[in-house]
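A note from the maintainers: we've had questions about how concatenated examples are separated. There is no special marker in the raw files; a new sequence line simply starts the next protein. For clarity in this README we add a label.
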Amino acid sequence: MSNRLKATDAHPRRWISEESINGAPPQEDHGQRYEFLLVAPPGLVEAIAGVIAAEVRPSIAAREDRWQLWNIEETGARLGRSERWIRERVRRGDLPHVKLDGGALAFDPEDVRRFAASRRVPASSTARQPASE
């Protein structure tokens, strides 16, 4: 098996040796876009994935540890709505919330995300026709 990188642009296809990538001076690309396919030895991708996963896991765990409820102002800011609008949705029973001591409203970020996702409108299957001149 050869250790070559395949570089492609619109046309023609080019094959570039590993040595030319590592040792060649940079060349002008003349606006061409290249995609590279690297043939890796067996096990290399899994080893790299393991290292990346070990680096990412602590940051995900740290984010989960920082979990907290959003107040009405934060919730309104994330939804792009006023506090009045948020209070109205709570009153109607549309927006899940937590009622804290003293009656303050708080919102679980996941509940707010689900609320927004449930109101997502898919793109229309019919394309708009341009206005005739």
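[label: protein 2]
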Amino acid sequence: MNKQAIFETVKNHLLSMDKRSYVEDNTGFPVCVYLDPDGRKCAIGALIPDGHPAQQVRMSVTTLLEQYSDLEQLWQVETEEDKNFLCTLQRVHDYKGHWDDKGLNAKGIQMLNDIVDEFNL
């Protein structure tokens, strides 16, 4: 997948969600996950093929790419900018301030627009 295809997939996915993909840790703090027990997927989770073992891990995008080189190839990650692009997309999902009770809010949508400009999409 090239950057434009990745962006469109993630953008459409996030806009369709009513809330973030997360689980609560043992203190009740929400921790974002690639696939939550209710089947919701985060930004990068939307790019992970169904059934792939990476859906079940809890690690940063950078570590995910190091551990699963097949995803790095699938997403055509070749440079640090490519990694930064994926991490930036993930931050749209992970930041609680980008969400309200209806889903992705105006701040989250603005960050998506900023990504278009930052990465020349």
